[in-house]
Specification:
Largest interface: A-B, 102 and 101 residues
Number of strands of chain C: 1
Strand order of the largest sheet of chain B: 3-2-1-5-8
Oligomer: heterotrimer
Shape of chain C: flat
Chains: A mainly alpha (560), B alpha+beta (340), C mainly alpha (200)
Number of helices of chain B: 9
Distance between the termini of chain C: 77 Å
Largest sheet of chain B: 5 strands, mixed
Number of strands of chain B: 12
C-alpha cells in the first residue's frame, strides 16, 4: 500500500493564542463539531459525577450507624432517587456517548458525524434535562411540602408515582427530565448508527472497524428499541398524573405490574447500553498494552451482537418476586443464564489477548486489568441473581446494590478511568501524570473493594435497599460503617483524578500523535486533531491500519 | 468523639460475631422455602466460586507471566488472531454449566411455587399498607396487625401457613429471610406464598419494596407457636374487646374519649362503634410486643408518646397527631393498655 | 510555526466505495425507535382489552373508519408518485403528488377529529372515563400527532415545490420524507387492526 507522510497541521497545544472569553464561549455554545460536543458531554457528566457522588457520601454517613439522624427520611429518599437517576441518565449516558461522539468519526476516518446539527441539539436537550432534574430542589413545591426533588426511587414504581401518593411536582421533574434525556440519547444513537453505516473511509468494511465502533453500533441499536419504551411509559405516567388517565391506576383496574414490565424492558437493555461502550474501551486498550491484536475479533463481534439481542429478552429477572408464576419465572431464568455465555466469551477473548503478550503496566492498562477482574466477579454475582429462588432472597437487598455497583463502578467507571488516561493525550496533546494516576488507581480500587465487596454481606443478612436507617442487632452495623470508609477512599481517588486532568492540561508532557504506539486511525491525526480530523481521506486494508504502516513486512491483511 | 465510640462499638460487635448470629440471615433457614433456596444457593455459590478460581487464577497468572520485562527484545510478540477450536470450547463448556444450573433452578421453582396445598394449612390474608401490615384469618374470624402468629409445622404432619397477599396502596414486599424468599404485595393483584416454620420462635424481617417515607420502619415479626399456643392465641384474638370497663374510672373515661374522637374513623375495636379500617385493628393491642409495625416497644409511655405525636417517632407516618390534651392522652392510654 | 507530521494511510487504487445514503439510514433508525414507542402503547391497549371497570366499551361506541383509512393509505400512493416524478425531473408531477398527499392526510385528520367529537359529546368517552378511554385516546392520539408532524413537513415541501425551489437533486430528501409518511401509514394499519377489528 502506498503511503505518504502527510503534513498534518499546526499542533494547537503549542500555537493557540489567547482569545477573548466571549469568543471562546460562543464557539463552544454554537459548535456542531463532534469533538467539541463530545467534550461538552464529558465535562457535563463529570460535574454530575461529583454531585451524585456527594449524594452517595451523604447516604453512607446516614447509614454508618443504626438509627442515625444525620438526614431525615424524606431527604434520604430524595438522595437515593437523585443519586440513581443522576448517575444513570446524567453521568453514565452522557459520558459514554461523549466518548463515542469524539472517537467514532476519528476511528472510521470520517470528517464528522452524519448529522452535526442533530448532534448539537441532542447534547443541549440532554443538558437541559439534567438542569431540569436539579431545578426540582428549588422549584418543586407542592402540597404539604411534598415538593422538592423526586423521592420515588430511580425506577419509580407505580402506584407510588400516582398523584395521590406523590402529590406536588417532584415526580414530574423526574419524568420530564428523563424524557428529554431520552430524546437526546436517541438522537445521538441515530447519529452514531448513520455515521458508521454511511461515512466509513475507503476500505473500511464493517469487518475492519475497531471493536469500539462495533460496540457503539450495537449500543445504538439498543437505544432505539429500549429507550423508546421508557419514553412511552413516561408519557403514560404523565397522562395519568395530569389528564386523569388510568394506565397505572390500580383503583380503576390498571396494573402496577405493567409499569414494571415497561420500565424493565427499558431498564435491562439500559445497563447493556452502559456496559457495551465500556467493553469497547477495554477492547481497544488491552491489545495495545499487551502488544498483540485482539484475540478472536469475529467472535467478539458475534458475542457483542448476541448480547445486544439477548438483552432484550431478560428484563423480568428484575421482577422474580412479583408473582409471575413458575412459567414466567422459568423463562426469564433461562434467558438470563443464556446471556452469560456470550459475556463469558468476551472475558475469555480478552484473557487470550493478554496471553503470550508483553503487558505494559501503564495506568490505562492497570484500570483495564482491574476491569477484567471486577467484571468477572460482577458477572458471577449476576449468575447468582439469575437463579430465581436465590433471587427471592437476594432481590431488593444490599446484595443487588453490591452487584450492580460492581458492574457500574467496578466495570464501567473503571474502564472509563482507563479510557480517560488513554485518550486524554489525543484530545489535549499532553500526557496525564503517571504518578498521580497510580495514586488515583490504588486509592480508588481499595475504596471500591472496601465498599462493594463488603456490601454483599448485609444483603445476605437480610438488609433491604432504600432504607434510611436500620435496626441494631441484625449484624449490619459494622458492615455499613466499613462501606462508608470505602466511600471516602473513592472520593479522594476521584478528586486526585480531577486534579490530574486539570494539572496535566497545563503541565503534562507533550504527547505527539501516537504516544502509546497504537494501531487504529485516531492515532494517525495530530494531538489534538484539527477540526477536519484527516487532511486526506484514509484508505485502510485491515483492522489495524497503523500496524500495517509500521510493519510493512508483515501487515495484518495477510491474516484476516 | 462520636466516630470513635461508633468504631469501638463495631469492634466489639465483630468480636462477638453478631454478623454470624444475625436473626435475618438467609443462611440459617427455619422453614422449607428458605431451606430450598439455601440449598440451591449453595450449589450456585459452589459453581460460581469454581469459575472464579479458575478464570481469576488464569488472569492472575497471565498478568504475572506475560508482563513486559526491560530485558525483553524490542520485537512485538507473536500476533495471534484467534482460534475456532478454542472459541468453540469456551462456548460449549459454559452452555453445559448453564443447562445444569437452569435445570436445578427450575426444580426448586416448581417445588416452591407449584407445591400442592395441604388441607390442614392455615390461611392468612395479608394486606400491605403504608407503613403497617394487616393480617386477617378469614376461616378463624381473626383480624390483627403487624405481628403475625402462625403454628409450627411438623414435617411429618405439615401445617403450613398460606399467605394471600395484596396491598391497599403502593407496592410492598414480605421478607422474612429465615422463613422464605420475599414476595411482593401489589394493589389490585393477589400473590400467594407459604411458610412452614419448624421451630417455635420469633422470626424477623421487614418490607422489601420501597413504599414511601417510612418504608424503613415497616418491620415484620412472625411468631411461630406450638399448635396449642397458637390455638390459645386464636381464641384470645377471636374475642371482642372487653366491654365492661366501669371498674376503673380512668379506663372508662378513656373509652368514652376514644369513641368520641376521630380515632374511630381509622381504627377498629371489635364490639364497639370504632370500625375504621384505614389504620391497624386495635382490639387486642396489648397482646402485641411492639407498636408502629415493629420499631417501638409496646409500653404505656411509648404508646402515649405515639398517640401525642406519631410523626416525632416515625416521621412521615400517615397517622396524624390528634392534638389531644395531656389528660385525654392519659386516659386514652389507660384504656388502650386494657385491650388484651 | 511548529508542524507535526503524522502518517495517514492512503491508497492510489481507485475501486469504487459506495455507502448507503445517510438520510435514508437516519430515517430508518428513527422509524425503528418510533415503532418501539407505538409498540408499547399497542401492548397497553391489548392488555387492557375487556378490563375496564365501567363505562362504554369499544363495541358500543366504535365504528370502522373505512373512509379515513382509504384516504390515509391512498396518500402513500400519491407520495410514492411524487417521489418517482421528482426523480424523473417532473416537478409538476411532484407538486401534484404532494398536493394529493396533503389533501388526503388532512381529510384523515378531519375525520378523526369528527370521530373524537362524536365519542366525547355523544358517549361521554374521555381519556379519564375508563381503561378503554385511556388506551384508545393515547394510542390513536399518538398516531394522529405523527400525522400532524408529517403533514406539516409535506406542506412545507408542497409550498417549496409550488415556489419552484424543488428540483431533481432534492429527490433523495423527498424520499426520506416519504419513508416517514409510509411509516405513519403502516402504524395506522396496526392501530386499525388492534383497535377497530380485534378490540371490539
Amino acid at each position: 500500500m502506498a503511503h505518504a507522510p502527510v503534513v498534518a497541521v499546526i499542533d494547537q497545544t503549542l500555537e493557540t493564542k489567547r482569545r477573548p472569553p466571549f469568543d471562546v464561549v460562543y464557539e463552544w455554545v454554537t459548535t456542531v463539531d463532534h469533538k467539541k460536543i463530545g467534550l461538552m458531554y464529558i465535562a457535563y457528566a463529570l460535574i454530575f459525577l461529583l454531585i451524585a457522588g456527594f449524594e452517595a457520601v451523604l447516604m453512607r454517613i446516614q447509614l454508618a450507624v443504626p438509627n442515625n439522624h444525620f438526614v431525615s427520611p424524606q431527604v434520604f429518599n430524595r438522595l437515593f432517587t437523585m443519586h440513581g437517576t443522576t448517575m444513570v441518565f446524567f453521568m453514565g449516558m452522557p459520558i459514554l456517548f461523549g466518548f463515542a461522539n469524539y472517537l467514532v468519526p476519528l476511528m472510521i476516518g470520517a470528517r464528522d458525524m452524519a448529522f452535526p446539527r442533530l448532534n448539537a441539539f441532542s447534547f443541549w436537550i440532554s443538558a437541559f434535562g439534567g438542569l431540569l432534574l436539579y431545578f426540582s430542589y428549588l422549584g418543586g413545591d407542592g402540597l404539604y411540602g411534598m415538593g422538592s426533588a423526586p423521592d420515588v426511587g430511580w425506577f419509580a414504581y407505580a402506584p407510588l408515582t400516582a398523584k395521590v401518593f406523590s402529590p406536588g411536582h417532584s415526580t414530574d421533574y423526574w419524568t420530564l427530565s428523563i424524557l428529554l434525556s431520552g430524546i437526546g440519547t436517541t438522537g445521538t444513537a441515530l447519529n452514531i448508527m448513520t455515521t458508521t453505516i454511511c461515512m466509513r473511509c475507503k476500505g473500511m468494511k464493517l469487518t475492519r472497524m475497531p471493536l469500539f465502533v462495533w460496540l457503539m453500533v450495537v449500543t445504538s441499536f439498543l437505544v432505539f428499541v429500549a429507550v423508546s419504551p421508557l419514553t412511552a411509559a413516561q408519557i403514560m405516567l404523565t397522562l395519568d398524573r395530569y389528564l386523569g388517565a388510568h394506565f397505572f391506576d390500580t383503583q380503576a383496574g390498571g396494573s402496577a405490574v405493567l409499569w414494571m414490565h415497561f420500565f424493565w424492558i427499558f431498564g435491562h437493555p439500559e445497563v447493556y447500553i452502559l456496559v457495551l461502550p465500556a467493553f469497547g474501551f477495554i477492547s481497544e486498550m488491552i491489545p495495545v498494552f499487551s502488544r498483540k491484536a485482539i484475540f478472536g475479533y469475529p467472535a467478539m463481534v458475534a458475542a457483542s451482537v448476541a448480547i445486544g439481542f439477548i438483552s432484550l429478552s431478560v428484563w423480568a429477572h428484575h421482577m422474580f418476586t412479583v408473582g409471575m408464576g413458575p412459567a414466567g419465572n422459568t423463562f426469564f431464568v433461562f434467558s438470563t443464564m443464556v446471556i452469560s455465555v456470550p459475556t463469558g466469551i468476551k472475558i475469555f477473548n480478552w484473557l487470550a489477548t493478554l496471553w503470550g503478550g508483553k503487558i505494559i503496566f501503564k495506568v490505562p492498562m492497570m484500570f483495564s486489568l482491574a476491569f477484567l477482574f471486577q467484571f468477572l466477579v460482577a458477572g458471577l454475582t449476576g449468575i447468582m441473581l439469575s437463579s430465581a429462588p436465590f433471587n427471592w432472597q437476594l432481590s431488593a437487598s444490599y446484595f443487588v446494590i453490591a452487584h450492580f455497583h460492581y458492574v457500574l463502578v467496578g466495570a464501567i467507571v473503571t474502564a472509563l478511568f482507563g479510557a480517560f488516561y488513554y485518550w486524554y493525550p489525543k484530545v489535549t496533546g499532553r500526557m496525564m501524570s503517571e504518578t498521580l494516576g497510580k495514586w488515583h488507581f490504588w486509592l480508588f480500587i481499595i475504596g471500591f473493594h472496601l465498599t462493594f465487596d463488603v456490601m454483599h454481606v448485609p444483603g445476605l443478612l437480610g438488609m433491604p435497599r432504600r432504607i434510611y436507617t436500620y435496626e441494631a442487632g441484625r449484624g449490619w452495623e459494622t458492615l455499613n460503617f466499613i462501606i462508608g470508609i470505602g466511600a471516602l477512599f473513592q472520593t479522594v481517588g476521584t478528586l486526585i483524578f480531577v486534579y490530574n486532568m486539570v494539572r496535566s492540561y497545563y503541565h503534562g508532557e507533550i504527547a505527539g500523535h501516537d504516544p502509546w504506539d497504537a494501531w487504529t486511525l485516531e492515532w494517525a491525526t495530530p494531538s489534538p486533531p484539527p477540526v477536519y480530523n484527516f487532511a486526506v481521506e484514509p484508505t485502510v486494508r485491515s483492522r489495524r491500519p497503523l500496524w500495517d504502516l509500521k510493519h510493512p513486512e508483515d501487515p495484518d491483511e495477510n491474516y484476516e | 468523639m462520636l466516630p470513635t465510640v461508633a468504631a469501638m462499638n463495631h469492634l466489639s460487635v465483630l468480636a462477638d460475631g453478631a454478623i454470624l448470629r444475625s436473626p435475618t440471615t438467609i443462611f440459617d433457614p427455619a422453614a422449607t422455602p428458605a431451606r430450598s433456596a439455601f440449598e440451591l444457593s449453595m450449589l450456585v455459590l459452589g459453581v460460581t466460586a469454581g469459575i472464579f478460581l479458575v478464570v481469576g487464577g488464569l488472569m492472575l497468572y497471565a498478568v504475572i507471566r506475560f508482563r513486559y520485562r526491560p530485558s525483553d527484545s524490542e520485537r512485538e510478540p507473536p500476533q495471534i488472531y484467534g482460534s475456532n477450536q478454542i472459541e468453540l470450547s469456551w462456548t460449549v463448556i459454559p452452555i453445559l454449566i448453564v443447562v445444569m444450573l437452569f435445570l436445578s433452578t427450575t426444580r426448586v421453582i416448581l417445588d416452591t411455587e407449584a407445591a400442592p396445598k395441604p388441607a390442614s394449612s392455615v390461611d392468612v390474608t395479608v394486606i400491605g399498607h403504608q407503613f403497617w401490615w394487616e393480617y386477617r384469618y378469614p376461616k378463624l374470624g381473626v383480624v390483627t396487625a403487624n405481628e403475625l402468629h402462625v403454628p409450627v409445622s411438623d414435617p411429618a404432619k405439615p401445617m403450613p401457613t398460606y399467605l394471600a397477599m395484596s396491598s391497599a396502596d403502593t407496592d410492598h414486599s414480605f421478607w422474612v429471610p429465615r422463613l422464605a424468599g420475599k414476595m411482593d404485595l401489589i394493589p389490585n393483584r393477589l400473590n400467594t406464598m407459604w411458610i412452614d416454620p419448624q421451630e417455635p420462635g420469633l422470626y424477623l424481617g421487614q418490607c422489601a419494596q420501597y413504599c414511601g417515607t417510612q418504608h424503613a420502619k415497616m418491620l415484620l415479626r412472625v411468631y411461630a407457636q406450638s399448635p396449642e399456643d397458637f390455638a390459645a392465641w386464636i381464641k384470645q384474638q377471636q374475642r371482642p374487646a372487653e366491654q365492661d370497663v366501669s371498674a376503673n374510672p380512668a379506663v372508662a373515661e378513656g373509652q368514652t374519649v376514644f369513641m368520641h374522637s376521630a380515632c374511630i374513623n381509622c381504627h377498629t375495636i371489635a364490639g364497639t362503634v370504632a370500625t375504621g379500617r384505614y389504620g391497624p385493628d386495635l382490639t387486642h393491642l396489648e397482646s402485641r410486643d411492639t407498636i408502629a409495625s415493629g420499631p417501638i416497644q409496646n409500653t404505656p409511655e411509648n404508646l402515649r408518646k405515639w398517640i401525642a405525636n406519631p410523626n416525632s417517632m416515625k416521621p412521615g407516618v400517615l397517622m396524624p397527631s390528634m392534638h389531644l390534651n395531656d389528660h385525654d392522652l392519659d386516659v386514652i392510654t389507660a384504656y388502650l393498655v386494657t385491650l388484651h | 510555526m511548529m508542524q507535526t507530521t503524522s502518517s495517514i494511510p492512503i491508497s492510489t487504487s481507485e475501486q469504487p466505495w459506495v455507502l448507503p445514503h445517510r438520510g435514508i439510514v437516519g430515517m430508518t433508525c428513527l422509524i425503528i425507535a418510533e415503532s418501539a414507542i407505538f409498540l408499547i402503547f399497542v401492548v397497553a391497549y391489548v392488555y387492557y382489552i375487556g378490563r375496564s371497570l365501567s363505562g362504554p366499551t369499544p363495541a358500543q361506541v366504535l365504528e370502522l373508519p373505512i373512509l379515513s383509512t382509504i384516504c390515509l393509505l391512498s396518500s402513500s400512493i400519491t407520495i410514492h408518485y411524487a417521489v418517482g416524478a421528482l426523480r424523473k425531473d417532473n416537478v409538476r408531477g411532484c407538486t401534484l403528488g404532494l398536493a394529493g398527499t396533503v389533501l388526503l392526510g388532512a381529510v384523515f385528520l378531519m375525520m378523526t377529529a369528527r370521530e373524537w367529537y362524536h365519542l366525547i359529546h355523544d358517549f361521554g368517552l374521555t381519556i379519564r372515563t375508563n381503561l378503554f378511554g385511556t388506551t384508545f385516546y393515547s394510542l390513536v392520539g399518538l398516531h394522529a400527532s405523527h400525522v400532524v408532524v408529517g403533514l406539516t413537513m409535506l406542506t412545507i415541501a408542497l409550498a417549496l415545490s409550488l415556489r419552484g425551489s424543488v428540483t431533481e437533486e432534492h429527490a433523495e430528501r423527498l424520499e426520506v420524507l416519504s419513508l416517514y409518511w409510509h411509516f405513519v401509514d403502516g402504524v395506522w394499519v396496526v392501530v386499525f387492526t388492534v383497535v377497530y377489528v380485534l378490540g371490539r
